[in-house]
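Hi again,

Forgot to attach this to my earlier email, sorry! This is the prediction with 2-acetamido-2-deoxy-beta-D-glucopyranose bound. I've pasted everything inline since the attachment limit keeps bouncing my files.
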Amino acid sequence: MPRKPYNKRDVNGVAAPNYNNGVSNPMMSTPEFKVRLFLFVACLWPLWVLALFGASAPGHNQQIASTSSTDNDTSKNAVSSPAAAMSNARFNLRSVLDRVDVMGYGPTHPRVAVVIVGEDKEDLIASIKSVYANTDINRIFVVCAVLDGHQEDLEFVRELRNVDNGSVPHWHGIRADVHLPGTNQAAQEDDPHSKKIHVMFNPTRLGVAASRLDSVEFVQILEKKHISAGFKSVDEDLILLLMQGGAQLKSHSWLAETTSALIVPPPILGIKDESLAMKVANAVSFHTEGFGKRTSFDEKFSPIITEATADEINLSNGHSFPTPALNGAAVALRLDTFANLPAQDPSLMDPWTANLDLSLNLWLCADGIDIVEEVEVSPPMAENPTTTLNPDQAARFAAVWMDEMLQQKFFQAYSSTWTRLDWETKVTKVKQSATTPSDLSRRCRSFEWYAKEVNPNLSKILEMGGWEHDHEKEIAEKQNVSKEGEKETQTLKPPPLLERKEEEKKDPPPINAIPDLAGHDKKKPSKPLRPENLNIVSQAKPINIEFEDASDGHEAHPHLGATDENGHVGYIHDETALRKNPPTLKIDEEQMAKFCKSRDDNYKMMHNRIVVDMEYDKKMEKSGVKRDKIFCLVYTIDSGHPKIPNILETWGPKCDGFMVGSNKTDPSLGTVNILHEGPEEYNNIWQKVRSMWSYIYDNYYEKYDWFHIGGDDLFLLIENLRLYLESEEIKTAANGGIYLPDGTETTQTPLLLGRRFAYMGDLNDIFDSGGSGYTMNKAALKLLVTECFVNYFPHAHTFSEDTMVARVLRKMGVLPYDTKDDDGGERYMPFMPGHHWSYHLPKDPMNSKDWYAKYSINIKEGAEHCSPKSVAFHYVKGENMKRLFALAYGLCPKEYLD
Ligand SMILES: *[C@@H]1O[C@H](CO)[C@@H](O)[C@H](O)[C@H]1NC(C)=O
Ligand SMILES: *[C@@H]1O[C@H](CO)[C@@H](O)[C@H](O)[C@H]1NC(C)=O
Ligand SMILES: *[C@@H]1O[C@H](CO)[C@@H](O)[C@H](O)[C@H]1NC(C)=O
Ligand SMILES: *[C@@H]1O[C@H](CO)[C@@H](O)[C@H](O)[C@H]1NC(C)=O
Ligand SMILES: *[C@@H]1O[C@H](CO)[C@@H](O)[C@H](O)[C@H]1NC(C)=O
Ligand SMILES: *[C@@H]1O[C@H](CO)[C@@H](O)[C@H](O)[C@H]1NC(C)=O
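Structure tokens for the complex follow:
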């Protein structure tokens, strides 16, 4: 059926879209639809507030008029004199909206738009009832029910309205309310609450994919109207719940679980602005098939049920696990995520192919799909879904998602009856069609990646040969084989691809996997690791630390590299320039007197507590032992460049390698314009960090042992850092946690070192604070760049890079190592020294408003908070950098000291 491409429609502004596209849908194709839409919008309950305050934006008069004339009773109920309120409309409106936010419409408590597609009335009613029974009515934005393949049916509409009749407590903007049956208008047909349910009829069956796309378009129009009327903040990101008619939510917790999986509130130091909430482009599915079970599909793309591995379940303590595909009973994702999927095919009619298409979009071009185990959804009654792809569908999936080689392999796996010519003809036809999205490879991951990492049941496709294993020849061969037994051995030989796979598996086993045999002549450290740290270290797999080129020709983000001062790509910064040619430290007498005479808390911490062990450092340098090499990475933007000289004059040259990631290259400062996806803004640091680490990995990995990153207000004590990194403890940890390395190791356990915070106090969600920065060894950097960046959140748009780094490393079993010293003193500090000197924990840290108390893990107060051998401080601004340096390195003249 010919359909207009969706994303080309204009959904801006007030005008209803042109639905006159030849689709025979009386409801949508008549001008009446426009009026219906207006009425519908006008009746939506929050809009009565608009009418109430008379807040009219140009072009909205018609809406308001219709509201007042249909909703007499609400206006009467709410305020006795609407006219009085009108005078300060705008002002009051704002405060009403604030109130609405408190109730839970803010960016971190978005409302949900439910889209239910079905072909059976009873199924739709059952699903809608389950939504109402399990969702806070205030958080339902709209419920859009599509009755596919049915004529308009007013009886059915009336029936649905009874589901949502306002009989549960809810808010009218500023007033809590409940309509008891019989006591007010609720019993009447036109009560103010029945319009959250919107019904669409498709007299000609459109199918699942197209019905969903239609409904989402409707939701987007509605959203725009709410935004322009001032009833929805642009920061509130609607959640979209797609259900199949007949599926039923079973748990009230579904929205809370879903929200926290899709939207992460700001975790970062001192940032309370909730509009900066991190938005994840993943989708959430629910427990439908039994504990630990999930929908997947085989090499012919037919659905199968598989079990999540114990590892996958354990990663989140059984809370959730990834699923390769959706069964479509219910799936939740952000409306924006859905709208940005690049390759949705509206021609897929049946639930399975539509869900398969959605699944591939989500995995390859967004952040994937997770099942939330606690939330149960009962699946719709089985209605004989088509479970195999027809050849046209198969050809389309191949043409859209696979490269040429994989298309051939998929064909071998999919069909035993077709000829190669049939297949190539079909695929070519799909490719040439104007509605087939092209060039997904720049935006999305490869199908091969998906087959390897997400859906192992597709391994059969990867193992197939290409055209050289010509299909018809193979069939002929098989026929011959059955005749001549001797040929059998030849055909049973595994194809070359399999052989290579076997070889790869023969990697040397990780050292700590065979402790006893290998352990005889291995040296243990003088003190074992603390049990907690041993546990942390043993969760991570040691990895081979040989450099593997992950840049892929530097053609795609995050390996695009850097530009020089003139904008030429391919710039490679000389990271040793600063160490070779450090600028002189400039502190005049007056400054020095100021730095050293003040007896503030910064002085107390630096002078009375912190020690830089220069003796040890000198001894080590003399001994000729190979020192660990540290690369320091600072990030800023051009407006932060004036802060850089303070670092260059103080601790910067102590790093073996030094670079400042920026958006402007200036060799005199060591700043480098790193190319990355998305805009140069605070809210996009994740993408910048992905590019910076990739650049460091691509260019400097082999020369350095450790890599530290921090902002331009970071102060490092490099001698103490190196002392710690070269300690028996850290060497043992990087070697699996039991034995010291002997220098012959080819593998290393990834280590993530820094200041640990428990996100919202949750000890299962620990990350290293970005303030003091974090230090990684080779194994961690390699894993981060070559695995984590590729597989997790490749396009997320967020500032919380520190939680993101912890999160993606955690997916690979790497947890932040506890870097406290043996007396419980912290080494990495999120604030200035003086802050820690004077800080006192509140009585009940977990219930206090003090985020720092809540996030901190067993910290000490006062001087003892900081390890004498501290390595990092944060929020060191302006000349404080030089002051801390002078105090730490004994530069103060004696007469100024006690
Ligand atoms: C609203 O009020 C007008 C005038 O007071 C009246 O004619 C109309 O019937 C009322 N409508 C409803 C739905 O109560
Ligand atoms: C309103 O909804 C409740 C719960 O769904 C139901 O028990 C009640 O009968 C409904 N009332 C009316 C007037 O439809
Ligand atoms: C998963 O966790 C459970 C309980 O914590 C544990 O018993 C089990 O061994 C773990 N499985 C794996 C594969 O780590
Ligand atoms: C899918 O993969 C799992 C695990 O690799 C395996 O146990 C199962 O048998 C496979 N199912 C099919 C139908 O290939
Ligand atoms: C099958 O066997 C016949 C004779 O036994 C031979 O001519 C033919 O080439 C064989 N076909 C293939 C594909 O090996
Ligand atoms: C760097 O980014 C900032 C913040 O977005 C911007 O104001 C500035 O113009 C950018 N500088 C360059 C050289 O692009």
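The pocket of 2-acetamido-2-deoxy-beta-D-glucopyranose (ligand 3) is lined by residues 310-311, 314 (CB under 6 Å). DSSP finds 38 helices and 29 strands in the chain.

That should be everything now.

G.
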